[in-house]
Amino acid sequence: MSKTLEQFEQYLDKMKKYEHINTLLYWDMRTCAPKLGQAGHIDALTYFSTESFAMSTSDELYGMLETLKTPEEFAQLSDTMKFIVTRMQRDMEKDRRIPKDRYKVMVREQAESGNAWEDAKNASDFSIFAPHLEKMIALTKEMAGYTDPGKEVYDVLLDKYEEGMDSATIDRLFGELKEALIPLVKKILAAKQPDDTKFHAYFDPDDQRKVQDLLLSYIGFSKDAGAVGETEHPFTLNFSSKDVRVTNHYYEHDPISAMFSAIHEGGHAIFEQNVNPEYDNTAAGSCRYMGVHESQSRFYENILGRNKNFWIPVYEKVQELMPQMKDISLDEFYREINHVRNSLIRTEADEVTYCFHIILRYEMEKAIFRDNVPVEKLPELWNQKMKEYLDITPANDAEGILQDMHWSDGSFGYFPSYLLGSIYDGMYLEELEKELGPVDEILKEGRIKEITKWLNEKIHWYGSTRTPKEVIANVCGKEVSAEPLVRYFEKKYASVYDLK
Amino acid sequence: MSKTLEQFEQYLDKMKKYEHINTLLYWDMRTCAPKLGQAGHIDALTYFSTESFAMSTSDELYGMLETLKTPEEFAQLSDTMKFIVTRMQRDMEKDRRIPKDRYKVMVREQAESGNAWEDAKNASDFSIFAPHLEKMIALTKEMAGYTDPGKEVYDVLLDKYEEGMDSATIDRLFGELKEALIPLVKKILAAKQPDDTKFHAYFDPDDQRKVQDLLLSYIGFSKDAGAVGETEHPFTLNFSSKDVRVTNHYYEHDPISAMFSAIHEGGHAIFEQNVNPEYDNTAAGSCRYMGVHESQSRFYENILGRNKNFWIPVYEKVQELMPQMKDISLDEFYREINHVRNSLIRTEADEVTYCFHIILRYEMEKAIFRDNVPVEKLPELWNQKMKEYLDITPANDAEGILQDMHWSDGSFGYFPSYLLGSIYDGMYLEELEKELGPVDEILKEGRIKEITKWLNEKIHWYGSTRTPKEVIANVCGKEVSAEPLVRYFEKKYASVYDLK
């Protein structure tokens, strides 16, 4: 091993430890730390994130990467190390342009803004969050100005979460969807709707936790390499492929939400648990493409979890763990988990109208970053768009613009990933059935782990080493298109709603 | 502010952040991190603890402390800062003699040994733990050799957990207890014993958690400044007075264990939540005297929690939260929580025979550090002493020598603190009744918070600024003695067991 490579590996090792504890601080703030303990965690997070950032942009690291990129050094590197060195150098070019003190301001504001969002949502008062949102928008623009000067800010943000993606492509894909879904949803809403009364009884959160554990294990989540926490908004994070954590939220009068959050976050987690462990804690591990990531969570949640056959092998066990479910037949349950309706909350939406929730957010973000719509106008704009796409108006900000945490930590440009994920899912589904046969059969026979294995081998194993375009090309051999997803929706809902 | 003081405060601030994340890593390892994620945490903990230790023993800090101790600088310091500077300098003199690389070995071995102990306990196989125990003993001796060369190792360990305490004093106090308790326990065991059948029914752990939350809140634990986790062995830790965490363990066929663990750990936590917040994250905060600390947890657990009057205001609520308790009258419950019997597990023992569990461990530790009894002989010695003091023999190591985690992280010399705590409690009780009137009345009327306030003002507020001897002198105005505890036992159990 060359001396530089040895130094570089030691340096990576130290960086890894800082990232490790930043992840842990974030996890604990959300899942465990008490109200009065938040400030201590924010102090520590600000300090260690700043140190971590300084390390990832230091002259020392830059010098090592330059050396490792020289032909004679580079030729000696493993393929993984070649990827890591190339990727880190590219990221560094951008990140080094962010002044360290401004980065520190960003980290502190992210944490404070996250807490303000929680308070604002609890109080259903946008004005508590507005000044923080304003700061996050300004800071996001400022950061994009350093990393990608002269580029359209919103395209920089889209590319950050889904490399190679831009608003022209998204306009096309979302356009294809809108064109097909607006008439489909009209037909569905005109059809007979199921009665959902039974789903509003009281479901003990302790029982819901047991069902969640069953579902996680059923789809292939490893408890030896994972943990579960409780938060306002479910999420997944990981330290490495050996420690991947999901959270959930339990509603006393809705058993379905926590089940599908479990399957969704479980999908993210299965991805991370199955990345090549050689990539752990490097730029090659932990998939950084959010569209690709969401394609996995949403494949489990929707393509598999909202298929009736998914439930055939486990439904009796669910009824045992949550006795009120004994009053609900599998048919009734299946109708309800595919109950299409115009609703207020994205995370609770059915898979069809969900698309409109994302299109709305995508347009909001374009309004913020392209049209510079001022923060105080955003709730009104939100409500207008809700009326336009979903024909309802939120009664308050908590069920309107405050419902998602994403903007609170500056994750602008993330929302489109969810729908890109579903678009990819339509494509994967067609390919998977070509290779493994009908999904209905596989699920009905309780062979879901075969699907997990297929996804492991086709997608998960590669972590961040394949860009979204490469993933799609490798799995499906074609360009991305919304048509397979549209076909899936049209076929499925013609059957669910008995449409002509 | 002098320039050195300013630098010193910045330095303390950085140290605080390292300690903060070391505490968090430990918390997460015990309460949340999955099996395969432990190694990543151990790596991080080893790194940051070593850095933290290096910071607390650096020449830079030493120089600052020297300067701050000069008369002109020292005179300008606040009383708190005077305490901190003096205390840190004294600790540093000792710690600086530990080689940094040996400290690192110690930290890593502590973490690995903790995991080995857990595996050994689960497998009930001492041989899994033995090599780690051997290393921990050797490392403990080695460390004592650096910090206190030439001193009796076991006295160094006792002084570490309860400053000013030595084996001569403990021999006297435990001797007083033995003399009185051996005949008392004989009399009790000869009396009529209550029927405990009802307490072995199934008690849902989810209900037990609800009862735990009720009890914590009832005694004064603040949820805004605290959190609860689940672990094999309950413990309390704190980041500052604003973030104090307890853990618990729930046995399906024993509702009492988790209740009393909650009250015990709640007592530790109430202590930490009520230390002068000015002392947060300094050598003045977070009480470092374990006898004094245990005196608080055990005051809540035994003096208050095992008093019938404690339950009068809450027993109905407990029965609501845990329906099986409706079959159990308060009288039956009271008899059971004071059911004296020879038993195997320290943490499950009644308050009387508990004393023998500690005396046994104290004698074991003397055997290890004074008589150098080899590790492989320890299970046999343990079982001999169990027979001698408690007239029973463990069927296996899990319910014998492996039951406690203390030795796994090298906390030799800690066990006597529990009994010292009870000895102090006897003294506090007499003083408290002098000042506030009969505890029975206060508890019966649901005025337990008045007792908490008394303890807050007399003990908690001072954190680490008063040594155990000073605490006793300030609260009781006399030397430590086991006589009040003996009087408490004799009076209480004459009544519980209707002894002549």
UniProtKB/TrEMBL annotation, chains A, B:
- Name the domain of life: Bacteria
Listed A to Z, the keywords are: Carboxypeptidase, Hydrolase, Metal-binding, Metalloprotease, Protease, Zinc
Q: How is the cofactor bound?
A: Binds 1 zinc ion per subunit.
Q: Does the keyword Protease apply?
A: yes
Q: Where does the record place the catalytic residues?
A: E265
Q: Name one Pfam family in it.
A: Peptidase_M32
Q: What's its catalytic activity?
A: Release of a C-terminal amino acid with broad specificity, except for -Pro
Needed cofactors, names only, are: Zn(2+)
UniProt binding sites for Zn(2+): H264, H268, E294
| Single GO BP term | proteolysis
Task: State one molecular function term (GO).
Answer: metallocarboxypeptidase activity
InterPro entries named among the record's database cross-references? Peptidase_M32_Taq
Q: What is its EC number?
A: 3.4.17.19
Q: Does the keyword Zinc apply?
A: yes
Question: What family is it from?
Answer: Belongs to the peptidase M32 family.
| Function per UniProt | Broad specificity carboxypetidase that releases amino acids sequentially from the C-terminus, including neutral, aromatic, polar and basic residues.
Q: What's the name of the protein?
A: Metal-dependent carboxypeptidase
Name the gene: ypwA
